[in-house]
Write the structure tokens for this entry.
Amino acid sequence: MNFQNIIKIISGILGVLGAIFLLRIMSTGDDQIKMDASLGDFSIVTPLIMLAIFILSIAVLVTIIFSLRSLAANKNKLKKSLLMLGIFIFVIAISYGISDGVETPLKDGEILSANGSRWVGTGIRVFYILTVVAFVSMIFSSVKKLISR
């Protein structure tokens, strides 16, 4: 039995489990699930959620493993990836440097610390910088295509 057959069998088992859990939820009905949830009983929905988390974890793990294998096999890809990682860390450092933190009261009565506020500002600035970089690179690529025709 080869690796692909094992993957197909496991996928089939997970698919059947998902279908069983879904049918169980559908047969219970929305009203009963809401009533049980208001009492703190999530036993009808929990198996499907746990299955989804399990499948997502497997997908992420397999993706990371194959990505790292691919990077290890090709030195140029590894160098380029490390360069891009360095640039990303540099963008985060710049964003953190220009962000300021202020203690902020939240809606639930808690207080967001100055450091937490600074990290929120950092995330927003990183998003803006990466958005601008993506936009400029798309424009540059389009103009380059037009010129090369």
Remarks:
- The beta strands are 104-105, 111-112.
- Residues 1-73 form one domain.
- Residues 114-148 form the longest helix (35 residues).
